[in-house]
Amino acid sequence: MKKIVFISGATKGIGYKVAQQLASHxxxxxxxxxxxxxxxxxxxxxxxxxxxxxxxxxxxxxxxSVKSAAEAITKQLGKVDVLINNAGVxxxxxxxxxxxxxxxxxxxxxxxxNFFGAFAxxxxxxxxxxxAGAARIINVSSTLGSLTSLSNPEHFFYGVNSxxxxxxxxxxxxxxxxxxxxxxxxxxxxxxxxxGWVKTDMGTSAAPRTVxxxxxxIVKMATMNNSPTGKFLDDNGEIPW
Length: 241
Description:
Radius of gyration: 17 Å
Strand order of the largest sheet: 3-2-1-4-5-6-7-8
Shape: globular
Distance between the termini: 36 Å
Largest sheet: 8 strands, mixed
Number of domains: 1
Helix content: 40-55%
Order of helices and strands: EHEHEHEHHEHHEHEE
Mean pLDDT: 93
């Protein structure tokens, strides 16, 4: 039976590239996005390349939408083998706002997508993951969520002092640690990964890495034998929490 992967925020950028690559690994690919037009277009493009792809409407900021997505997958396919929490926002990259001047609304909106949205998907997809027998949750995080790295003046990202984005990824990493322990007996692994600074709408053209390079670690975690759990990883290995 083919493995099924659900990827949030997968109509473009890293999410789309991961979908493309996992389809070539014989996965059924579920594209999760709130924009129906973009979702349909992404699926049509994937199918034109021979992928078994389906669009699942989902707004990670609306739990009723997340529940509806889980119900639709339950009826259509019955399970999810790999859940990739890829959807995320970073308003500060464009704003350049000092942390102390950040609005509470920006902080809430960032956590809404990057942390609460990821948890809402996991929470509602647990029955689907259990049906897979041995499932994986991959949380797309960032080295900017590493408190060890951000507090080291010698680190490359030390100067990227984006309170909302960074702390939302730190919280996502805490979620990974907690759920890796909680879901171990259910045979569900949970890991955080960092794709690096990638040329996407969020990362901008200033980023040094391509979308293909960013997708590599996610595809590896989705397809490798004997997945670890409770880890924070990038292409070079473990990242300190």
